[in-house]
Specification:
Elements: H1 12-40, H2 49-68, H3 74-98, H4 104-107, H5 116-133, H6 137-153, H7 161-180
Helix pairs in contact: 1-2, 1-7, 2-3, 2-5, 3-5, 5-6, 6-7
Length: about 200
């Protein structure tokens, strides 16, 4: 469980990694909000490069959080890094198959499946924070992000429902981010003697 009391002083490197971790969370949130606006007003976002840039930034921001997360159990951290490697590989395959057309994701039934490993990485982070700091929207995000992509893939979401589903995810991510990023830095470190 996360603690709000400070056990030991933080080193400069620990402060940097906590800032990177939270910056990754905040960037992921901003990207989700940006995609929501793109889905709401697609005519304003005509550049074919914008979706590629947004997806690339989402991979980068999630990677920042994955690589700088502080976990007591090494096995969990290594598992998360492996999952992120799988998501990066899936992203590369997605980019190659789509020939750089990220909107291809919506046109094929299997396109959204390539994003499931990435959503699981972000879901792991939100669930960890939910467990540690009672940010319960983190549990909801961990469950609905992969489920949303599966439903998109199965064509279980039709009409305006995919937009509202994504908007709900973006809202929960915003709530989660606002509650997380303003915590004192030492909360993410906890008791360093407990690290494996």
């Amino acid at each position: 469980m996360g603690e709000f009391c400070q056990y030991q002083p933080l080193t400069r490197w620990e402060k940097v990694t906590v800032v990177l971790y939270r910056a990754g969370i905040a960037m992921s949130c901003l990207i989700a909000i940006g995609v929501s606006f793109m889905l709401l007003k697609p005519s304003y976002f005509k550049s074919p490069l914008l979706p590629i840039i947004m997806l690339g930034l989402l991979y980068m921001s999630t990677g920042m959080s994955v690589l700088s997360i502080h976990l007591y159990v090494r096995k969990y951290k290594e598992t998360l890094k492996i999952l992120y490697s799988i998501s990066a590989l899936s992203g590369a395959v997605l980019f190659i198959l789509s020939k750089g057309d990220v909107l291809w994701l919506l046109a094929t039934p299997y396109g959204p499946l390539f994003l499931i490993p990435l959503s699981c990485c972000l879901g792991f982070i939100t669930a960890k924070e939910a467990f540690c700091f009672k940010l319960y929207e983190g549990y909801i995000l961990a469950l609905i992000m992969p489920f949303y992509l599966i439903m998109l893939s199965l064509r279980g979401l039709r009409g305006i429902v995919p937009f509202y589903g994504f908007l709900a995810i973006a809202f929960l991510l915003l709530l989660f981010t606002l509650r997380k990023v303003f915590m004192p830095l030492h909360c993410d470190i906890g008791d360093k003697t407990a690290y494996q």
